[in-house]
Amino acid sequence: MTLLPHQIEIIGYCAAFLTTIAFLPQAIQSWRTRDLSGISVGMYSLFTAGVGLWLIYGLIIEKWPLILANALTFALALSILMLKLRSKG
């Protein structure tokens, strides 16, 4: 089966939407409760850095599904990481 370019873009947007929206409940719960005891600083640091690199990669190759999803996920992950770092000190 051969996919057309617009079909490939649709798959990218669907994947981007699902992986980003899956992260939203964690972010909302973290903001509301301020309970970050179950959050690992190491894991969130690595995750946030990885998402940031995916964002840079998306910008370099100019692929909007990567750019949009990773920009939003990076902002959410960074906000949780910052809450966690502030709660430790």
From TrEMBL:
Residue intervals passing through the bilayer: 6-24, 36-60, 66-85
Membrane topology term: Multi-pass membrane protein
Location (main, coarse): membrane
Gene3D superfamilies in UniProt: 1.20.1280.290
MF annotations from Gene Ontology: sugar transmembrane transporter activity
Record localization: Membrane
Key words, A-Z: Membrane, Transmembrane, Transmembrane helix
Name of the protein in its database record: MtN3 and saliva related transmembrane protein
The organism of origin for this protein: Polynucleobacter duraquae
Record lineage: Bacteria, Pseudomonadati, Pseudomonadota, Betaproteobacteria, Burkholderiales
